[in-house]
Amino acid sequence: MSGEEGGTPLPPGFAVRRSALRLLDAVLRKGLPLEAALPSATQSLDRADDRAFAHAIAAETLRRLTDLDALIDAATAKPLPADAKARTALRIALVQALALGTPPHAAIATVLPLVDGGPRRLVHGVFGATMRRGATLPSPPHLPDTVATRWPAAWVEPARAMLAAPPPIDLTLKPGVTAPEGFTLASGHVRVPAGTAVTALPGYEAGDWWVQDIAASLPARLIGAGRGHAIDLCAAPGGKTMQLAAAGWQVTALDLDRKRLDRLRENLTRTRLSARVVEANAGVWLPDAPADAVLLDAPCSATGIFRRHPDVLHRARPRAIANLAAQQAVLLAHAAEMVAPGGVLVYAVCSLERDEGEAVADGFAASGFVPEPIRADELPDGFVPDASGRLRVAPGTLAEAGGADGFFVARWRRSL
Ligand SMILES: C[S@@+](CC[C@H](N)C(=O)[O-])C[C@H]1O[C@@H](n2cnc3c(N)ncnc32)[C@H](O)[C@@H]1O
């Protein structure tokens, strides 16, 4: 037994489920990223494997939330409120029994102490009825209705398929290094299978490469090689900074998050690359002299990385997207002030939301800037610019090779 509550012994494993419930509460009620909620939601768990299991339960629940809720709603006469503790407890019990291989008796016994009285009887009854009728979870999972109706219809089935499969891991290589064994989608790139322990791969200690989805490597690829000054705005943890430094630029890497900048510095140290690191707000800071290239990888809803972080599908609500879009427009206008005549400006977001991508680029109107259309021959096979020379990486891209994160990239040149 793992303790007592009100004189009743608690079953082993209860504390893990309580942490999973706290994680789901943090994401679904408070709108926090799952990763950010981990330290406080799992602080009562001493063992790393318990913390990892609580994380896995919460992540799988978020991946399958729409289908879990459909099972719960099918078994309740009156729908439970979205934020009812009984609904969250049921989600945790059902996801374990139907997706994570936990024996049903353990799945229910470990969540029942999360709820009292009537709700406890309800959780017990709904779980039992659902299991007795042999319910299963569909594969691939369904997207939340809000997302499925907001995204273009053609994205929905490819996105569901992406949600079903663990994503492969992409490595960006420093020029001239010997690549670890893997599949190559572009020059300077290797794809290794999902779940690979990357720190054990050859070249990790030597800093020959870093983890970066192929789509995330495109904004810096579209700046190319150069000898001048490049400013990487919103740079941490430094994937694009390392690309630019490896491509010959003198890089200024700026971010306002000190902890993420520490990770950027660690990444530079491991890869033996260099950049000037600045802790500042990209909406306020200005360089001493304008730069030859400015890359703005703006803060966004991150819906493009939903297959690694399914919480984004539930946190990207319309108001949050509108607020981010307003912030992105301000940051882009300020970034333009940092570009020297003749220099290049690249805007990128790992978002699948039109409002954060195409609409922000449409609204950019700094004088002296002309669009520099992205050409198909600048992109790895499988990526195609749109008719106006901007790049939308949508669900379904590279589907046969394991997919790619969602991204939007636009490019301008300062003519004067
Ligand atoms: C999409 S992530 C950047 C990923 C990074 N470019 C890379 O390739 O590794 C967005 C970053 O923006 C930073 N950020 C958010 N608002 C900012 C602001 N106003 N000024 C500077 N950095 C900001 C966040 O701390 C976060 O590190």
Any idea of the CATH topology of the largest domain?
Rossmann fold
Backbone structural class: alpha/beta
CATH architecture field of the largest domain = 3-Layer(aba) Sandwich
- What distance lies between the first and last C-alpha atoms, to the nearest angstrom? 72 Å
Pattern of helices and strands: EEHHHHHHHHHEEEHEHEHEEHHEHEEE
Q: Treating each run of at least 4 consecutive H or I residues as one helix, how many helices? A: 15
Please give the largest β-sheet. 8 strands, mixed
How much is the average pLDDT?
95
Q: Which band does the percent of strand residues land in? A: 15-25%
Q: Could you characterize the architecture of this molecule?
A:
- With 416 residues, the chain is of the alpha/beta class.
- It has two domains: 4-132, N-utilizing Substance Protein B Homolog, Chain A (Orthogonal Bundle); 223-414, Vaccinia Virus protein VP39 (Rossmann fold, 3-Layer(aba) Sandwich).
- The protein is built from 15 helices and 13 strands.
- It has helices at residues 14-28, 34-41, 48-63, 65-74, 85-99, 104-109, 117-132, 145-150, 153-164, 218-221, 239-246, 258-271, 311-315, 318-336, 358-363, and strands at residues 4-5, 8-9, 169-173, 189-192, 209-211, 229-233, 250-255, 276-279, 291-297, 339-349, 369-371, 391-393, 407-414.
- Strands 6, 7, 8, 9, 10, 11, 12 and 13 form an eight-stranded mixed β-sheet that branches.
- Helix 11 links the parallel strand 6 (229-233) and strand 7 (250-255).
- Helix 1 (14-28) crosses helix 3 and helix 3 (48-63) crosses helix 5 (85-99).
- The longest helix is centred in the C-terminal third of the chain and has 19 residues, at 318-336.
- 44% of the residues are buried.
- The mean pLDDT is 95.
- Bound molecules: S-adenosylmethionine.
- Residues 234-240, 255-257, 260, 281-283, 297, 299, 350 line the site of S-adenosylmethionine.
- S-adenosylmethionine is lined by residues 234-240, 255-257, 260, 281-283, 297, 299, 350.
